[in-house]
Design goal:
By secondary structure, the protein is mostly helical. It is built from four helices and no strands. The chain starts with a helix and ends in a 16-residue tail after the last helix.
Length: 105
């Protein structure tokens, strides 16, 4: 128990970094620190991208729904009965053709 307490005390005081064995490994400790920093940074970046992907999926779904609504309104407004009704409302003299369409070959 006393050895653990003295080791903890050395770590907290910073005396452990004065030890020769630890002093020889400064580059390795710095490299490990850099890898830990990069790992944490990549975690934050991936989480941000995950949130961004979710927002873009929602935006895409909204755009698809709007496209479907506009498409159905366009289909309804271009039906022959709707076109003739709109022409009558605007007082146009155009009428529906009574003769069938002639196909020229």
């Amino acid at each position: 128990m006393n050895k653990r307490l003295s080791l903890l005390q050395k770590i907290l005081n910073g005396d452990i970094f004065r030890n020769e064995k630890v002093a020889q490994q400064y580059r390795l400790l710095a490299l490990i620190g850099v890898y830990i920093f990069i790992s944490i940074l990549m975690g934050f970046i991936s989480e941000w991208q995950y949130v961004r992907i979710g927002a873009l999926k929602k935006e895409l779904q909204d755009a698809r729904n709007e496209e479907l609504t506009i498409s159905s309104e366009l289909v309804n407004s271009t039906r022959q009965s709707e076109v003739s009704r709109a022409l009558k409302e605007h007082g146009s003299n155009l009428r529906e053709a009574n003769t069938p369409v002639i196909v020229i070959k």
